[in-house]
Amino acid sequence: MKKHPFFQNPAPEVELLEKEEVAVSPQHAIILYNDDVNTFEHVIEMLITYCDHQPEQAEQCAYIVHYNGKCLVKNGSYDDLVPVCSALLDQGLSAKIEA
Q: C-alpha distances in angstroms, 99 versus 24, 54, 62, 63, 76?
């Protein structure tokens, strides 16, 4: 049986690289909860303004909150999410940061 050309050549030398340790901060999430106070339009506007959602994404989140009672609307580090969550609360929405 004839050997395949790949197996006829010696294996190339491989340089091993050192593992680099990367510090990963734990991710948190802002969860938006349903309420009987805010309109769809207000919720959508707030998600666009404070969570940097596109209009379609904000509308989908508003419907998820309405039908499921809650929706994850933004991920990130705790420190980055605190001002966003505070702004949503200041605008009358029900939200909290979860790990």
A: 14, 24, 22, 23, 10
- Amino acid type, 17: L
For the chain, give every domain's residue range.
26-98
Q: Whole-angstrom Cα distance, residue 81 to residue 64?
A: 20
Q: Average pLDDT, stretch 38-53?
A: 97
- Residue 71: in which H helix or E strand, if any? strand 70-76
At 60 the pLDDT is: 98
Q: pLDDT grade, residue 24 (50/70/90)?
A: low
Choosing among 3.30.1390.10, 3.40.50.150, 1.10.357.10, 3.40.30.10, the CATH entry for 26-98 is 3.30.1390.10
pTM of the model: 0.74
